[in-house]
Amino acid sequence: MTIKEVCRKFDVSADTLRYYERVGVIPEVHRTAGGIRDYSAEDLNWVATAICFRSAGMPIELLIEYVKLFREGDETFGARRDLLIEAKERILAERKKYDDALEKLEYKISKYDEAVRTGVLKWDEEGSCK
Amino acid sequence: MTIKEVCRKFDVSADTLRYYERVGVIPEVHRTAGGIRDYSAEDLNWVATAICFRSAGMPIELLIEYVKLFREGDETFGARRDLLIEAKERILAERKKYDDALEKLEYKISKYDEAVRTGVLKWDEEGSCK
DNA sequence: ATACACCTTAGAGTCAACTCCAAGTCAATG
DNA sequence: CATTGACTTGGAGTTGACTCTAAGGTGTAT
Predict the structure, then answer these.
(1) pTM (2 d.p.)
(2) Do the beta carbons of residue B89 and residue A127 sit within 8 Å?
Protein backbone atom coordinates (compact mmCIF):
# COMPACT_ATOMS: atom_id res chain seq x y z
CA MET A 1 0.00 0.00 0.00
CA THR A 2 1.47 3.36 -1.01
CA ILE A 3 1.80 6.30 1.32
CA LYS A 4 -0.96 8.10 -0.56
CA GLU A 5 -3.40 5.25 -0.01
CA VAL A 6 -2.52 5.20 3.68
CA CYS A 7 -3.16 8.95 3.82
CA ARG A 8 -6.62 8.47 2.39
CA LYS A 9 -7.36 5.46 4.58
CA PHE A 10 -6.52 7.26 7.83
CA ASP A 11 -7.14 10.85 6.78
CA VAL A 12 -3.64 11.94 7.70
CA SER A 13 -0.91 13.73 5.72
CA ALA A 14 2.05 12.00 4.06
CA ASP A 15 4.31 14.35 6.00
CA THR A 16 2.83 13.13 9.25
CA LEU A 17 3.32 9.47 8.27
CA ARG A 18 6.95 10.09 7.31
CA TYR A 19 7.45 12.12 10.49
CA TYR A 20 6.05 9.31 12.65
CA GLU A 21 8.42 6.85 11.07
CA ARG A 22 11.40 9.20 11.25
CA VAL A 23 11.05 9.89 14.98
CA GLY A 24 10.08 6.30 15.84
CA VAL A 25 6.36 6.57 16.63
CA ILE A 26 6.05 3.58 14.31
CA PRO A 27 8.80 1.12 13.27
CA GLU A 28 10.40 1.33 9.81
CA VAL A 29 7.90 0.75 7.04
CA HIS A 30 8.54 -1.90 4.38
CA ARG A 31 10.04 -0.50 1.13
CA THR A 32 10.07 -1.45 -2.56
CA ALA A 33 13.41 -2.17 -4.30
CA GLY A 34 13.42 1.49 -5.36
CA GLY A 35 13.17 2.69 -1.75
CA ILE A 36 9.51 3.69 -1.87
CA ARG A 37 7.31 2.96 1.17
CA ASP A 38 4.96 -0.01 0.70
CA TYR A 39 2.90 -0.37 3.88
CA SER A 40 2.23 -3.98 4.96
CA ALA A 41 -0.77 -5.06 7.08
CA GLU A 42 1.49 -4.87 10.12
CA ASP A 43 2.69 -1.39 9.16
CA LEU A 44 -0.94 -0.30 8.79
CA ASN A 45 -1.66 -1.70 12.19
CA TRP A 46 1.12 0.39 13.71
CA VAL A 47 -0.20 3.46 11.92
CA ALA A 48 -3.74 2.81 13.17
CA THR A 49 -2.50 2.40 16.73
CA ALA A 50 -0.37 5.55 16.59
CA ILE A 51 -3.25 7.62 15.23
CA CYS A 52 -5.68 6.19 17.75
CA PHE A 53 -3.43 7.01 20.72
CA ARG A 54 -2.45 10.41 19.37
CA SER A 55 -6.14 11.29 18.92
CA ALA A 56 -6.57 10.53 22.60
CA GLY A 57 -3.85 13.05 23.43
CA MET A 58 -1.00 10.62 24.12
CA PRO A 59 2.31 12.43 23.63
CA ILE A 60 4.57 11.23 20.85
CA GLU A 61 7.27 10.49 23.44
CA LEU A 62 5.18 7.76 25.01
CA LEU A 63 4.57 6.09 21.65
CA ILE A 64 8.27 6.28 20.84
CA GLU A 65 9.05 4.60 24.16
CA TYR A 66 6.57 1.82 23.38
CA VAL A 67 8.09 1.15 19.96
CA LYS A 68 11.55 1.19 21.53
CA LEU A 69 10.48 -1.50 24.03
CA PHE A 70 8.85 -3.49 21.24
CA ARG A 71 12.12 -3.50 19.31
CA GLU A 72 13.99 -4.74 22.37
CA GLY A 73 12.08 -8.00 22.23
CA ASP A 74 10.15 -10.32 24.54
CA GLU A 75 11.94 -9.33 27.76
CA THR A 76 10.01 -6.04 27.65
CA PHE A 77 6.49 -7.50 27.90
CA GLY A 78 6.20 -6.28 31.48
CA ALA A 79 7.52 -2.81 30.72
CA ARG A 80 5.18 -2.51 27.75
CA ARG A 81 2.21 -3.54 29.86
CA ASP A 82 3.15 -0.98 32.53
CA LEU A 83 3.45 1.71 29.89
CA LEU A 84 0.00 0.85 28.51
CA ILE A 85 -1.47 0.94 32.02
CA GLU A 86 0.05 4.38 32.55
CA ALA A 87 -1.42 5.50 29.23
CA LYS A 88 -4.81 4.23 30.31
CA GLU A 89 -4.65 6.16 33.60
CA ARG A 90 -3.71 9.31 31.74
CA ILE A 91 -6.54 8.97 29.27
CA LEU A 92 -9.07 8.28 32.02
CA ALA A 93 -7.91 11.43 33.82
CA GLU A 94 -8.20 13.46 30.61
CA ARG A 95 -11.63 12.08 29.88
CA LYS A 96 -12.82 13.19 33.29
CA LYS A 97 -11.94 16.77 32.31
CA TYR A 98 -14.02 16.37 29.17
CA ASP A 99 -16.95 15.17 31.27
CA ASP A 100 -16.58 18.16 33.60
CA ALA A 101 -16.60 20.54 30.65
CA LEU A 102 -19.64 18.81 29.16
CA GLU A 103 -21.52 19.18 32.44
CA LYS A 104 -20.70 22.89 32.55
CA LEU A 105 -21.72 23.25 28.92
CA GLU A 106 -25.07 21.51 29.45
CA TYR A 107 -25.84 23.93 32.24
CA LYS A 108 -24.82 27.00 30.28
CA ILE A 109 -26.66 25.89 27.15
CA SER A 110 -29.86 25.37 29.15
CA LYS A 111 -29.54 28.89 30.58
CA TYR A 112 -28.91 30.35 27.14
CA ASP A 113 -31.91 28.49 25.71
CA GLU A 114 -33.95 30.22 28.34
CA ALA A 115 -32.25 33.55 27.61
CA VAL A 116 -33.01 33.28 23.90
CA ARG A 117 -36.69 32.58 24.73
CA THR A 118 -37.18 35.17 27.49
CA GLY A 119 -34.54 37.76 26.61
CA VAL A 120 -33.06 37.46 30.10
CA LEU A 121 -29.95 35.49 31.08
CA LYS A 122 -30.07 34.40 34.72
CA TRP A 123 -27.73 32.05 36.59
CA ASP A 124 -28.77 30.08 39.64
CA GLU A 125 -26.17 31.63 41.97
CA GLU A 126 -24.82 35.16 41.95
CA GLY A 127 -21.85 35.44 39.60
CA SER A 128 -21.79 31.68 39.25
CA CYS A 129 -21.51 31.60 35.50
CA LYS A 130 -21.07 33.71 32.38
CA MET B 1 -7.84 38.09 45.37
CA THR B 2 -4.26 38.50 44.14
CA ILE B 3 -2.89 36.75 41.08
CA LYS B 4 -0.77 34.52 43.30
CA GLU B 5 -3.81 33.30 45.20
CA VAL B 6 -5.62 32.60 41.95
CA CYS B 7 -2.58 30.61 40.76
CA ARG B 8 -2.75 28.47 43.87
CA LYS B 9 -6.51 28.07 43.69
CA PHE B 10 -6.51 26.84 40.09
CA ASP B 11 -3.00 25.41 39.87
CA VAL B 12 -2.06 27.60 36.93
CA SER B 13 0.84 30.01 36.36
CA ALA B 14 0.58 33.80 36.72
CA ASP B 15 1.93 34.07 33.19
CA THR B 16 -0.96 31.99 31.93
CA LEU B 17 -3.51 34.14 33.78
CA ARG B 18 -2.00 37.35 32.37
CA TYR B 19 -1.82 35.76 28.93
CA TYR B 20 -5.51 34.75 29.05
CA GLU B 21 -6.48 38.29 29.94
CA ARG B 22 -4.18 39.85 27.36
CA VAL B 23 -5.53 37.83 24.41
CA GLY B 24 -9.15 37.99 25.61
CA VAL B 25 -9.82 34.46 26.85
CA ILE B 26 -11.24 36.22 29.91
CA PRO B 27 -12.41 39.85 30.17
CA GLU B 28 -10.24 42.49 31.91
CA VAL B 29 -9.69 41.70 35.56
CA HIS B 30 -10.50 44.27 38.27
CA ARG B 31 -7.45 46.29 39.45
CA THR B 32 -6.37 48.12 42.62
CA ALA B 33 -5.65 51.87 42.47
CA GLY B 34 -2.00 50.97 41.87
CA GLY B 35 -2.85 48.87 38.82
CA ILE B 36 -2.44 45.48 40.45
CA ARG B 37 -4.90 42.72 39.55
CA ASP B 38 -7.51 42.01 42.25
CA TYR B 39 -9.71 39.14 41.01
CA SER B 40 -13.42 39.50 41.89
CA ALA B 41 -15.82 36.54 42.24
CA GLU B 42 -16.89 37.16 38.67
CA ASP B 43 -13.29 37.27 37.47
CA LEU B 44 -12.66 33.96 39.24
CA ASN B 45 -15.68 32.52 37.54
CA TRP B 46 -14.30 33.48 34.14
CA VAL B 47 -10.95 31.95 35.06
CA ALA B 48 -12.62 28.71 36.18
CA THR B 49 -14.61 28.51 32.96
CA ALA B 50 -11.57 29.19 30.77
CA ILE B 51 -9.50 26.54 32.55
CA CYS B 52 -12.34 24.02 32.42
CA PHE B 53 -12.85 24.45 28.67
CA ARG B 54 -9.14 24.54 27.91
CA SER B 55 -8.65 21.29 29.86
CA ALA B 56 -11.23 19.78 27.54
CA GLY B 57 -9.14 20.80 24.54
CA MET B 58 -11.17 23.81 23.43
CA PRO B 59 -8.94 26.13 21.41
CA ILE B 60 -8.24 29.57 22.79
CA GLU B 61 -9.81 31.11 19.68
CA LEU B 62 -13.23 29.73 20.61
CA LEU B 63 -13.01 31.16 24.12
CA ILE B 64 -11.94 34.53 22.74
CA GLU B 65 -14.94 34.51 20.41
CA TYR B 66 -17.24 33.74 23.34
CA VAL B 67 -15.88 36.63 25.41
CA LYS B 68 -16.16 38.90 22.39
CA LEU B 69 -19.87 38.02 22.03
CA PHE B 70 -20.35 38.48 25.78
CA ARG B 71 -18.93 41.98 25.52
CA GLU B 72 -21.27 42.82 22.67
CA GLY B 73 -24.26 42.47 24.99
CA ASP B 74 -27.65 40.82 25.11
CA GLU B 75 -28.21 40.69 21.35
CA THR B 76 -25.64 37.89 21.20
CA PHE B 77 -27.48 35.37 23.41
CA GLY B 78 -28.31 33.27 20.37
CA ALA B 79 -24.80 33.39 18.96
CA ARG B 80 -23.35 32.48 22.35
CA ARG B 81 -25.72 29.55 22.68
CA ASP B 82 -24.76 28.35 19.19
CA LEU B 83 -21.09 28.63 20.03
CA LEU B 84 -21.59 26.60 23.22
CA ILE B 85 -23.49 23.96 21.27
CA GLU B 86 -20.64 23.75 18.78
CA ALA B 87 -18.19 23.40 21.66
CA LYS B 88 -20.29 20.58 23.09
CA GLU B 89 -20.31 18.74 19.75
CA ARG B 90 -16.56 19.07 19.50
CA ILE B 91 -15.98 17.78 22.99
CA LEU B 92 -18.31 14.85 22.45
CA ALA B 93 -16.41 13.97 19.27
CA GLU B 94 -13.08 14.22 21.10
CA ARG B 95 -14.34 12.12 23.97
CA LYS B 96 -15.32 9.40 21.54
CA LYS B 97 -11.68 9.20 20.45
CA TYR B 98 -10.67 8.79 24.08
CA ASP B 99 -13.16 5.95 24.45
CA ASP B 100 -11.82 4.28 21.30
CA ALA B 101 -8.28 4.52 22.64
CA LEU B 102 -9.37 3.13 26.01
CA GLU B 103 -11.03 0.17 24.33
CA LYS B 104 -7.86 -0.54 22.37
CA LEU B 105 -5.79 -0.18 25.53
CA GLU B 106 -7.98 -2.58 27.51
CA TYR B 107 -7.52 -5.18 24.83
CA LYS B 108 -3.77 -4.71 24.60
CA ILE B 109 -3.32 -4.67 28.37
CA SER B 110 -5.23 -7.95 28.68
CA LYS B 111 -2.98 -9.52 26.04
CA TYR B 112 0.13 -8.23 27.76
CA ASP B 113 -1.10 -9.54 31.11
CA GLU B 114 -1.29 -12.93 29.46
CA ALA B 115 2.12 -12.43 27.84
CA VAL B 116 3.71 -11.59 31.17
CA ARG B 117 2.19 -14.75 32.68
CA THR B 118 2.86 -17.16 29.80
CA GLY B 119 5.87 -15.58 28.12
CA VAL B 120 3.98 -15.49 24.81
CA LEU B 121 2.26 -12.49 23.25
CA LYS B 122 -0.58 -13.56 20.96
CA TRP B 123 -3.21 -11.41 19.25
CA ASP B 124 -6.61 -12.73 18.24
CA GLU B 125 -6.16 -11.95 14.54
CA GLU B 126 -2.99 -12.12 12.47
CA GLY B 127 -1.11 -8.81 12.66
CA SER B 128 -4.09 -7.23 14.36
CA CYS B 129 -2.15 -5.53 17.09
CA LYS B 130 1.32 -4.77 18.38
C1' DA C 1 12.74 55.38 54.37
C1' DT C 2 14.62 51.48 52.76
C1' DA C 3 14.51 46.71 52.00
C1' DC C 4 12.00 43.12 50.19
C1' DA C 5 8.65 40.30 48.02
C1' DC C 6 5.46 40.73 44.67
C1' DC C 7 3.38 43.09 41.05
C1' DT C 8 3.34 45.46 36.16
C1' DT C 9 4.20 45.58 30.80
C1' DA C 10 6.05 44.59 26.17
C1' DG C 11 8.12 41.63 23.74
C1' DA C 12 11.12 37.66 22.91
C1' DG C 13 11.75 32.65 23.49
C1' DT C 14 10.25 27.72 23.93
C1' DC C 15 8.02 23.39 22.98
C1' DA C 16 5.32 19.70 20.77
C1' DA C 17 3.75 18.30 16.74
C1' DC C 18 3.54 18.84 12.69
C1' DT C 19 4.09 21.11 7.78
C1' DC C 20 6.59 22.84 4.07
C1' DC C 21 10.50 23.19 0.83
C1' DA C 22 14.36 22.11 -2.33
C1' DA C 23 16.65 19.02 -4.85
C1' DG C 24 16.65 14.91 -6.53
C1' DT C 25 14.78 9.68 -7.67
C1' DC C 26 11.23 6.33 -9.31
C1' DA C 27 7.69 4.38 -12.25
C1' DA C 28 3.90 4.36 -15.45
C1' DT C 29 2.42 6.38 -19.97
C1' DG C 30 2.55 8.37 -24.91
C1' DC D 1 13.09 7.75 -24.16
C1' DA D 2 11.02 11.76 -22.48
C1' DT D 3 7.40 13.56 -19.83
C1' DT D 4 4.58 13.53 -15.83
C1' DG D 5 3.27 12.80 -11.27
C1' DA D 6 4.30 10.66 -7.07
C1' DC D 7 7.92 9.46 -4.29
C1' DT D 8 12.48 10.27 -1.56
C1' DT D 9 15.56 12.89 2.00
C1' DG D 10 17.35 16.47 5.14
C1' DG D 11 16.38 20.39 7.01
C1' DA D 12 13.89 24.69 7.73
C1' DG D 13 9.43 26.92 8.94
C1' DT D 14 4.81 27.23 11.24
C1' DT D 15 1.26 27.02 14.78
C1' DG D 16 -0.96 27.12 19.25
C1' DA D 17 -0.29 27.85 23.77
C1' DC D 18 2.18 29.16 26.74
C1' DT D 19 6.73 30.75 29.35
C1' DC D 20 10.44 33.70 30.25
C1' DT D 21 13.10 38.14 30.52
C1' DA D 22 14.13 42.91 31.30
C1' DA D 23 13.07 47.03 33.25
C1' DG D 24 10.56 49.05 36.31
C1' DG D 25 6.28 50.10 39.86
C1' DT D 26 3.66 48.68 44.46
C1' DG D 27 3.03 47.80 49.20
C1' DT D 28 4.19 46.42 53.71
C1' DA D 29 7.43 45.25 57.53
C1' DT D 30 11.27 46.90 59.97
Answers:
(1) 0.92
(2) no
